[in-house]
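Researcher: Quick one. two chains, 508 residues in total.
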Amino acid sequence: MSLTRMYGLFLRHFYLITRSFPRVLDLVYWPTIQITLWGFISNFFATHTTYYNNAVGVILTCAILYDFLFRTSIGFNMLFLEEIWSRNFTNLFIAPMKIGEILTSLVATALIRALIGLIPAVLLTSPLFGISILDLGIFLFFLFLSLYLFGITLGILVSAGLLRYGPSFENIAWSTMFLLAPFGCIYYPIEILPELFQKIAYLLPLVYIFEEARNILINQTVDIQNIYNAFIWNGVYFVLSIALFYYSFNVAKKKGTLINMGE
Amino acid sequence: MKNLVEVKNIKKNYGKNEAVKGISFNIKEDEILGLLGPNGSGKTTTIGMLLGLLKPTSGEILINGQKLEGNRIEILEQINFISPYIELPKKLTVKQNLTVYGKLYKINNINERIEFLSEKLRLGELLNSITGELSSGQKNRVSLAKALINQPKVLLLDEPTASLDPEVGDFVRSFLEDYKKEKKISILLASHNMNEVTRLCKSILMMKDGIIIDKGNPEELINKHGRKNLEEVFLKLSRSKNEFN
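Model:
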């Protein structure tokens, strides 16, 4: 056993981490996010033991909705990362494709990928747990549509980061969903969050989507305002993400990221 | 012969670093122009600007009479590129890759085009093979087929025969000569293989530190610098210290 060789291998990874801000960030925020998210979940269950008494499917339904969001967002990022990993990125960007065509194509492909994952999960919940997500009724469509819009918005934002900063932004791609999870109020109502976090959460469409899913399942009522708010915020973030993608493309053309990405 | 590529005083700065310091050149129809220079001389940056992947800090590029700025899509339909540093998706078969790129370039009769290219590039038996499982020589021919899928008027080649064995290298060079003659296309060839450049190019640009330090046909350059071959000319110019700046 040679300490020098082992130290050499340690240095190889140490240099890599310290030369990349996204990698350092990645190390720091994973534990922070996990602790924050599970802290709120534990706090909620400790203080609201009867909240889910008559609606056992709520957690599972929210888990399926969140998974759809996760798959859509990660699916979009994967399509973009796939081109970088396979060193096909340059080929794609020298093809006569408009940015709008690239985005539209990826958005459609991400939907198909997410649905392929979602349909078996939805079908399994009924025979395994006696719960049907279809209990959300016609509003299920609007909730999924809203989640899909937010998922691809996050995907576009991360892809804009990849264009601008190159492959070192990859780690962010994997963690955006977890970063937002505590604010999304997926498994607990918004009241469980501290006031400052509540203010942030209300700026995201997620809180309206998950609050409404719980409202439908637990109270058997529909608050259209929640669905409306979710779409409004989705619209705002979607337009911003498209604008940021175009901006990043132009910056990448100035900085040379596009040509370095393929090599 | 008309100029298919016109490069007018293009510069590219990355912050304070001047990668390309105002170069101009043309490439005629039915011409292969060699772009030589040591690593870091600005060749890749120049190619990046011609492909629209990099925005010049100043200057103008015209392809087939059209300005690249503002006509990116129309121009990219007429250009293609091959480099050993970029690859096609490895998990797809050769035919799937060519079909995908046929669609991206909106080629009519994709199957006919693939058939034509596979015959010319000896790809017939490889069409259903997984691209990532091919040898370097085979991958190179597939990349060449992708680069020709849109019948480009301008072909940019960055080290097209790097890492190929002499037989495959010779095949690729012969193919490029014949294809250029037959289709009257313009080719920009960036290469460190001086024999290849001597064989294929009637004119050469020598770049160093972001500027063109010399140009001419291979024979002229060899005589002018009193050297035995192009490699010696390259070494002389590469090692000279700022005498051309």
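Chain B has nine helices and ten strands.
Researcher: Thanks, that's what I needed.
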